[in-house]
Structure formats: structure tokens, C-alpha cells
Amino acid sequence: MHEPDSTEALADFRTPSSPARPALVKIYGRLGNAAAWAIRDFLHRSDVPFEWIPLPSDDSARSEAQVDHLHDARLPVCLFPDGTRMECPTIRQITEKLGWFRNPSRSEYDLAIYGAGPAGLSAAVYAAADGLSTVLVERLTVGGQAGSSSKIENYLGFPQGISGMELAERAREQACKFGVEILLAREGVRAELEPGRGVGVLEDGTRIVARATICATGVAYRRLGLPNEEQLMGSGLYYGAGASEAPLARGQPVFIVGGGNSAGQAALHFAPHASRVSMVIRDASLRSTLSRY
What we know:
CATH topology of the largest domain: FAD/NAD(P)-binding domain
Radius of gyration: 20 Å
Strand order of the largest sheet: 7-6-5-10-9-8
Shape: globular
CATH class of the largest domain: Alpha Beta
CATH architecture of the largest domain: 3-Layer(bba) Sandwich
CATH superfamily of the largest domain: FAD/NAD(P)-binding domain
Number of helices: 8
Number of strands: 12
Largest sheet: 6 strands, mixed
Distance between the termini: 51 Å
């Protein structure tokens, strides 16, 4: 029997243009739980079909998720079609279960790229197309922040616009076509220099040796600096807003801080579901911060 490698497995799971697919993961958890949100966000951005089952009470937690109560540390619980049950899994554990996790296959590469957003993917495609052995390291999922955008209107070559997820998938397919090795759920934590090459050290101690290195690690959200901000992250306070999260705000007021394009997209996503959407901005209007399209 042919055993698919992680690149093939990734291709099997990620097909945004395909018709509705059965859920590959069932997630049981409570609304407002940061760990459950992180898993949903990862699966949505990776285009993995999943079913979210919110647990409204201790009784439902016991009957549906087989845990003691809503605040049980074992939540969220993830169930897979083969019967595998994961309790409060990490993103890496889910990546391993999906068959996407892998270790470097070479002792040395021509090029190592850290960050699989549009810049990192572009560099990987160009390098691999010219015959360079290329490894692409990404701590979360392919596409970066751009991958979470519902529609990108100003990307070259797509006059009608394209979703960030589809753009990321097309770029990933192109990278794999040229032999780029993609390491997901891996994070570079330290760099070392040796004569004629660089060494990237990953969080688990794995060393990636390359003749050239590109850091395309993107940008970080500008934080609000609120009291207890870290404790609220993923549990009522979010940076960026995926379309998949909008229905979960049904009947609730939503405040969006910022007036850029991402904020405008988020407002449109949440408006049909939330009881009220309020945008908080510094300027007198959105005219100077929101693109006309």
C-alpha cells in the first residue's frame, strides 16, 4: 500500500474549490475558550472542514464530550473520523494527526525560508523553480495573516479579487510542484552562523542548515495595551477576525477597533449576525483609512 507523505496529505485536505466536504474534525468546547478558538482558527485557515459543537451547560459537557463540567481542563475535545479522541490538543498535535507534520529530509539545503506568508511562498517558488533545494518553515499555517483575509482586491493578477485562503492554497500548490519542502507547526527560535552557511534552530532543537536564509516572518498586530489583555486573548478579545467566527457572535454586540481594510471586512462579516457592530476609530471618518473598493 502506498503511504502518502505529508505533502500529499496536505494536498488531499486543502482544496478550497471542491464541493462541501464532510467534517474531518468535531470540536466540543465552550464559547469564549481561547484554546477552542485557536483550534478553530487554525483549521479554518488551513481549509480543513470541521464541526463546532458548543457546550452550553455542565450536563452537555458530560453527555456530549464526556468531561466533568464546562471548565474541565480537558476541553476542548477533538474527535476524528477514525475514532481518535484528543483532549485540549496543541496545534502541533492536530498537525501530526492530519499527517502534515514532518522533519527536515536533508542535512543541508540551498535555501531556508522562515514564514509561509505571500512573501515567503513567493521566494520559495522562485528559488525552487531555479533548482535550489528549498525548505519553508511556518509556525502555524500557510498563508500568514493574508490567508485569513476573506477577499484581497489589490493583488497582482486577480482583477476580481481572491480570498486569502485560495491565494495561499494556489501558492502552496505551486511551491510543492517545484519541490519545496514545507514544515508546518515548526518555529525558528535561534540563528547560528557557520562558515558559508547558516543554521536555524527550531523550538524542539532541530537544526536546519542552509547556504542562504530568508526571514519572511511578517508583521505583528499593534496591541491595544489594555489591562489583562493577554488573559482575554482568544476569549472575547481578538486580533483579526475570520469570517468563520462571525456566526458565533449571533445576538451579541461587537466592537471593532481600527478603520483599515481588515476592520471594514470584519464589520461586514459580523453585521448580519451581531446585535450591533460599532467601529472605534481615531479619525472623524473612514475616508482616510479605508480603501475605496
